[in-house]
Amino acid sequence: MNDDHDLAGSQQSDTSANADGSRTYDQARWSDEERYEPLLSEKKSREVAVETPLPDELTRDSLELPALSEPELARHYTRLSQMNYGIESGPFPLGSCTMKYNPKFTEDVAALSDAAVHPDRGERSLQGTLGVLAQLQDYLARIGGMDAVTLQPPAGAAGELTGVLMAKAYHEHNGDDRGEIVIPDSAHGTNFASAAMAGFDVVELPSGDDGCVDLDALDGALSDDTAALMLTNPNTLGLFERDIVEIAEMVHDVGGLLYYDGANLNALLGRARPGDMGFDIMHYNVHKTFATPHGGGGPGAGPVGVVEKLAP
Fold this sequence. Notes:
single chain, alpha/beta, Aspartate Aminotransferase, domain 2, seven-stranded mixed sheet, globular
């Protein structure tokens, strides 16, 4: 890809070598002024005077809160917590997201206060943090068998959308207008949403009797209009797609890309890599695979990896 096509989003980061052989890590910077979101410290005050006072029926002299003792309040929230269902309550047999167990102590590691870096800090004072992030990119690339990784997406679903937009940008860069993404009916639910949000028509692929991709159905679904096949492996039923190499060949033969949803990457760690199976793009769900806490939209990271032909 040419340098003027930023497939990984509108932020870029790099490293540079010093004369003594050490490396200086550069902070990511926005390269698209139209989509630039200023920091709070860069924004001017938007305070305006209230033109019309609130009507009397919308105002009150005191808050209508019950007078509760501390034990009563503690019991209230404890009771609410008992309505939750988690790994401490019992098994949750869905094949995606929840078929693995992450030790609780890793949440303490992920919540270390030293990671809370203020965005206004200068690069020279952030070399340690930026170095750790660069090392993380390298680790994730090697784990997934990818050639490049971006840490910019803020959550798993956001990373998924980023990956789909990368596929779209790749085809557009090659002058290839493709409008369809093929997704198995057993896929993670966000796959369908991400493809549609990126402007693609979704072709739903029925599973075979064994719960895996039906190769005959896949052959009928693929065409010159196929931008990508989105696949989770093992799939949402917890089954490994044994025909993955043949699936990759079929997708690549029509000029499409193979997208890996990392929801169940735990099952492959140390045993196999998506890149070696023929996947071109993948997103990592770090809150699932590496035990950072779930955050109602992500704990702050949804890394995306790509092979060389998609790297910016």
